[in-house]
Amino acid sequence: MQIREGLTFDDVLLLPRHSAVFSRKDVSTKALLSRHISLNIPLISANMDTVTESGMARTMARMGGIGIIHRFLSIEREVEEVRRVKRAENVIIEDPFTVLPDITLGEAKNFMRREGISGVLVVKMKAGRKQLVGILTRRDLLFETDDRQKVSSLMSKELVTARPDVTLEKAKHILHDYRIEKLPLTTKDGYLAGLITLKDIVERMQNPTSSKDKKGRLMVGAAVGVKEDTLLRTDLLLKAGADVIVIDVAHGHNSRAIETTKLLRKTFGSKIEIIAGNIATPEAARDLAKAGADGLKVGIGPGAACTTRIVTGVGVPQLSAIMDVAKEAAKLGIPFIADGGIKNSGDLSKALAAGANTAMIGNLLAGTKESPGEYILDRGVAYKYYRGMASYEAASEKTRIDAGGQGGGPADGFFRSPEGASGRVPYRGDAGMVVTDLVAGLRSSMSYLGTRTLKEFQKNAEFIRMTDAGLSESGPHGVK
Length: 480
Ligand code: XMP
Fold this sequence. Notes:
TIM Barrel; binds xanthosine-5'-monophosphate; about 35% helix; CBS-domain; 3-stranded mixed sheet; globular; 8-stranded parallel beta barrel
């Protein structure tokens, strides 16, 4: 048997080229996520339960990338996470949050805190429709201390409203003229038909390159598995507005994953954008593309929390996996994501130069404000938790969710030899800063290679192999 050599990011460097690009600003980082979706930055937050729920997905889309909501959630919760992204920065929120007038202030405050909103519309239900009766704003709550009071006694009843067909310009004028932050939309007979908020308009103006769907809402993806509930889950996620469905299995070159790709394509036709994975070989790329995938996810075992290669002895060093799949993907005309193992902007640049269209990030984003969970302080240093989705901890949680929130843990599943690790990662502040740094490094890399687009970047890329001495020379040394 002949043994081929596999390489990864730390084995190589990109050769600099003659360049007429003088500024990082002169390069475009536009990239294809899948056959029909283009992004302004080639970054995707990983579908992991310590990385992407709605908060992360909103930030990723605002920055011009996209987040994929993980699937270790009940169907209802995953759908709700998608809805939360779709509600943000939408000019018209079609389905705004509401409360009933007879709940207490304490209940309303809890609801608002949970949903991350500063005010809420108050409605009465009439024959299944919502009649707008008031609004509870930040100002109404500011000096109220008695949480037992009814919402009806505190809400503002004099409402400025508009009709659902109001233009954005007109809505801006109304918000300005009346110095209000929320403009409910109602039908002629006073039923709620939507909401426009000042915050969404301002955010929209501040993020002109964000990733938007046809309706002007932020884009978001959602992961599904290959079990019995996949069809139902996918259907509801699409109805909630998910722009792309990621079929998420550890070994994507597997007949179940291929059958699921075929089934989703057959059931939803052109209404669905499918990314399938994870894979690491050209044969897998061919089989999944043939089954109907619009995009692929490449990476078996390179992730920071992965132990697949240790536990199974299976995998392909990530740079080689990318280069192998790139040749086949180019023939098939299918974009792909380099998923896992990116430790810095240099690795990102190498992954894209080697042929990936975009990159998925787990570890680097797990320590940010937007990832699920709170940060912890240990002896003055802040951390967040990060875990592999095949770790013992994540699998126990999944068993618990599948059992409807009860039980869980090893007794309920046959979970031995986990293929993921769990632990903590340094707290890094805003995800936006991590993304900005990664993209700045990539832009700089593109200018070193004299290229203005990612396509040119791949064409101009030539790798040089380095030794361990080369690698230690590459990092800071001799500086204390
Ligand atoms: P990074 O390096 O960015 O990688 O943290 C994120 C990717 O790691 C993969 N992943 C796993 N791989 N066992 C594995 O072998 C796991 O438990 C696991 N959890 C996540 C996944 O592809 C993710 O996007």
